[in-house]
Specification:
Length: about 170
């Protein structure tokens, strides 16, 4: 954990399911073993790593996120302009990866809520379930049947077919 970790930056939402009361007065052996492991193994290792990391901080390389400018879509490229085709393809691939990560984040939120709420997650996590279903539906609409060799051109053709089908239904 970094030294600047702030637990209040992203507070855990309160549980909506009541916590079950403990039935016995005996100490839990799992808690005792976990505390024994924590103090005998984890604390010394973490302290040693902190000392080593403090020595290595002087030589730490600086990392910056690379920011790309938005490039034109395939629809805006002139015929035969291969550099524009390539830039549009790379932009589409970046957008594809970003959309994958968005779906993963929403899925992690849903799983965290399900874990936190237990058996009553369906009523207490309705907002997260709705958000997950909308996100996956939109992802499936855009990237669903593109196959293993997906590209910006295939995605554009899929969008065109969807628009033609919508026009045919409305007419």
């Amino acid at each position: 954990m970094p030294a600047d970790h702030d637990k209040d930056a992203y507070p855990e939402p309160p549980r909506q399911t009541p916590v079950a009361e403990k039935q016995t007065a005996l100490p839990n052996p799992a808690v005792i073993l976990s505390q024994l492991f924590y103090y005998s193994v984890d604390v010394p290792v973490t302290t040693f790593r902190g000392v080593i990391d403090s020595f290595r901080d002087n030589n730490k390389p600086v990392y910056y996120h690379q920011k790309y400018r938005r490039v034109p879509d395939l629809t805006e490229c002139q015929e035969g302009e291969y550099t524009c085709y390539y830039e549009a393809e790379m932009q589409w691939r970046r957008d594809f990866k970003v959309d994958q990560e968005i779906v993963k984040v929403v899925q992690e939120r849903l799983r965290a809520c399900q874990q936190r709420e237990g058996n009553s997650y369906q009523q207490n996590c309705a907002k997260e379930m709705q958000q997950f279903s909308e996100t996956t539906k939109n992802y499936q609409l855009r990237y669903g049947d593109l196959g293993a060799y997906a590209s910006a051109r295939k995605c554009l053709m899929k969008q065109k077919e969807r628009m033609i089908a919508a026009q045919a239904q409305s007419a």
